[in-house]
Amino acid sequence: METSHIYPGASTLNSYITIDGCSDAIEFYKKAFGATEKGRLMMPDGKIGHAEIEIEGSLLMMADENKDWGNKGPLTIGGNPMTFGLYVKDCDAVFQKALDAGATSVMAIEDMFYGDRVGQVMDPFGYKWMITTHKEDMSFEEMQSRFDKMLAAQ
């Protein structure tokens, strides 16, 4: 059997995040998003050198901050321009579950012009999550038309 060029369970493009408090973050992601921990590699000081979780069939890799290696999380650097897009069957329920687990609301759940129902939360570790349920298929042309109408109404 030939070994694949892609790590087992991974996709061609994957996210790898740095967190101050990686172990706590794994527990949060289990509670908030139903994550399954795949494994972790521990450093001699007890911090996580590498961990993997799976959410809705997608792999998310992570590690604790290690300033000696130049790895710093969003709370240490004062922000993060990235947002995770998480598609789920019931965004309303998952949004509430994330809030109950300790996330804060960034954008309330609403139906969007592009056919998705969406809300955003900030997790306690400085990462924003766009929690989404797809409701309606449409072309980019239809999305543009709806986008134009939305902008004209503002």
TrEMBL record:
Q: Point out the signal peptide segment.
A: none
Pfam entry (one): Glyoxalase
Record-annotated VOC domain positions: 9-134
Stored InterPro entries: Glyas_Bleomycin-R_OHBP_Dase, Glyas_Fos-R_dOase_dom, VOC_core
| Name of the protein this chain belongs to | VOC family protein
Q: Which organism is it from?
A: Flavobacterium aquariorum
